[in-house]
Amino acid sequence: MSYLRFDKTLTTNLQESLPKEILRTNKSGAYSCSSIVDCNTRKYHGLLVVPVPELDDSNHVLLSSLDETVIQHGAQFNLGLHKYQGNVYSPNGHKYVREFSWDKLPTTLYRVGGVILKKEKVFQHFENRILIRYTLVDAHSATTLRLRPFLAFRSVGECTHENSIASREYHEVDNGIKTRMYPGYPELIMQCSKKTEFVFEPNWYRGIEYQKEQELGYDYSEDLYVPGYFELSIEKGESVVFAAGVNELKSEELASIFDYEYNVHVPRTDFQSCLVNAAHQFHYEKDGENYIIAGYPWFKCRARDMFVSLPGLTLAIDEVEYYERAMVTAEKAIREFIDKGTTSIKIYEMEKPDVLLWAVWCIQQYASLVSVEAAAKKYGDLVDKIVRYIKAGGHSNLFLNDNGLLSTDGHEHAVTWMNSEVNGRPVVPRSGYIVEINALWYNALMFNAELLTAVGRASDAVEFTQLADITGPSFKQVFVNHHGYLLDYVDGGYISWSVRPNMLIASSLEYSPLSTPERKRIFDICTKELLTPKGIRSLSPKSGGYNPIYEGGQAQRDAAYHQGTVWPWLSGFYLETCLRVYKRSALSWVDRHFVGLEEEMNYHCIGTLPELFDGNPPFHGRGALSFAMNVAAVLRVNKVLEKFYNY
After folding, report:
1. Coil/strand/helix, residue 201
2. Which residues contact 315 (CB under 8 A, 6 or more apart)?
3. In this predicted model, what pLDDT tens digit does every residue of 182-212 receive, in sequence order?
4. Cα–Cα separations (whole angstroms), residue 541 to 158, 170, 531, 622
5. E-strand spans in 235-344?
6. pTM for this prediction
């Protein structure tokens, strides 16, 4: 039985099935996403969603959905499902679903009378092409399959409506057609693996609604264009492949392409294999460069997210090669930024003051999981360049003070991962001395000294250990308070007493200015006030401003974004702190921590982890469908556990 499997009692219950989503990516920026019953609930959903760089920096929905109709003895059974105004669902194809499962591929099994039809979907790697294989498992009489494509040709951030500008023109290709609704877009090429008839029957389907967008206060209704339908006969035991992409293939190649993609996919058989599959979905390769997408469906490659995520998404699953390829791209961006203040590489937010410190941490994970010697050889010069750049005051928003600590100005714009803003101002204006920035700074100084020593430059390392000797005591003097935890930030005369998880970053680092008893006190208070079954809260319920429910309009959600919501990626630092304090005696505690996250494989976007959760029960998943830092954190901790168990 599949690890991810839902029978008809769930799939026919829309209240249960619609919130469960599936995501496939092609490692080139495109994706395919919908609910498990193929009813789109977001404007970001679509069978084929691709970047169109000729238009903008956004993704665009070309093929929104595909309605299948089974025809026997002249009777038509439409398997599609759409939501229309008035909470009307039509044509209610979900009532024919007997099972949805996801082992290698998302697979839906339909039963219509004596007909059993299996549908499998695969998104081709590095090609903007979705392939769907239909297999007629059983039938007692002649069967016809009709496929009706719903076209959007619009940005994921917009809704489209019936208009006279959209082109109805199409041209025949090998067993299919190609069409383009608007200039500037690529042609959408739809083909079948066997002879098919295309019937031109243009119509607009009006008032299709997206429930998730309605809940969030966005435009949620649109009209979709259907140019007609494909019709073909299918016999018992026969498989037919439908493909939609941006370039034409020979129709006889479709079946072999589908088989190849099927064979290279890793089955989802348990929690770990689901996360490994999810990790691969964040890979993004373009123009010879390698990136990590921060999350789907709306994030791009963000510098901080990339450096926090990269070790877990690669090194932790023994994929050192992709780490090194991604770091080639990242190193170009870092060096350009240090030398010029900007970068041509498509890694966004490189200018944030904590980003370079996270880059050093990222390289430190390579040293830990590969070797210090390899890290020193490959990245030692880069780490030294970063640390010297910061030390010399090269960054426009990092200031080294006489006490060895770094200060930054976060009054006007958010400068850390807590980056929500309302009306253009930070919800939490973290400024001055910020706890994780200075913990990462101390760690960077010591790690740079370690790498310099590893390549025989011990005399050069002294400069940084001496500065660390100043920074460490200053860190404790500024941040450690008499309640036993760390202040979140200190901005002149203002002291943030809020209990937040950022202190866990300080307590988890290999080089930390904190003693073991101090780490233990931090771990204890975070366990009491921040720990939930889904991860670590961004703010204690006992602190002022606690706002744990991430719902409502944009401003309301932004105000709650870091005010008590749960972020699973912070669990990595929590559990590393636990292992540093309690060593092997903590292994069973760490293992049990992931029980609450494993059950999320069957909720939200199945097989992966969402961006965040509400901070109060029942801890609903919120935000992006799949979030790189969360997946990476669990994989990284699993790797740390593996090292402990094998020690």
Report:
1. strand
2. 323, 365, 366, 369, 370, 636, 639
3. 999 999 999 999 999 999 999 999 999 999 9
4. 37, 59, 11, 19
5. 239-245, 283-286, 289-292, 295-296
6. 0.95
